[in-house]
Amino acid sequence: MIIAKSIDEIIKPENGSCVTIGNFDGVHKGHQKLICSTCQKAKANGLASVVVTFDPHPLRVLVNSKTPPFITLTSQKLELIAQHQPDIVLALNFTKEIAALSPEEFIQRFLIDPLGMKQMVVGYDYALGKGRSGNYEILAGLGRKYGYGIERLDPVIIKDAVVSSSRIRDMVQEGNVWDVRPLLGRFYQVRGEVVHGMNRGARLLGFPTANIKLEDELFPKKGVYAIRVEVDGMVRPGVANIGKNPTFGNEALSVEAHIMDFSEDIYDKHIRVHFIQRIRSERKFNGLDELKERISVDIELAKSILSYPESQVRPGLHLSESGAGAC
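Above: the chain sequence. Below: its structure as tokens.
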């Protein structure tokens, strides 16, 4: 598999290609269906399978700070796409110049000439080009001109609603991390470096915590969660607090993870936190004793939640926790 960030890095496939294109934020079940269909169609027709996406997200270029938080960083997105094993993943550097291209200009410059596109697979609502003017009808008309076929897939419906990045984003921000799992095909995850915090966890409370310098943009709603923490390729049970620690009057948002039955020094290491289920809201306690008592309760609740087979995860961003996986 080739992961490229420029057309110049790609050798034109000898027999042509089958291409799907999109932002793929989250690489959720709808995106997975697109990628799998593209890989299967390519294999059946002797073509190279190609997934085209963008970095940064087009909204970040077009509207800057007004964009919502994204579900996956580019590195996470590419890791998830790679699990489906397409022949080529092209993460185009999105610019205002690209945004200004007409659908025909974009297709000819990025899909026809360098990739020899023979087949195209798009989502039910996908559109490309300036002002999103390249809808399915336009793309089909261009297909007749340039000699490629196009297939439009129906949306994926779960719990009577379309699976979409915006729906997933809203659920994560509401703390519904257990319910978002079927839509993503995995538990929602954040990653970051373990840094020194206020030195209160072990010293004052008796519960050592890993304070995470977060890389991600989208965080679950403030509160306490049952989690699984990935450290050095091993997955361990834990409980995490997202918030400002009102008992101590903090101002900054933090994520602090207590890893159960774990005492290794992991400062400066990068870890991943899989959010399994929300336990409660963050609240202010009347002193350390009341807080310590509640943390003990939270840990027991987390142990109960994590005892269910459905709560298991494997290292990495695997899509198999709820039945998804490579095509």
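Residues 288-306 form the longest helix (19 residues).
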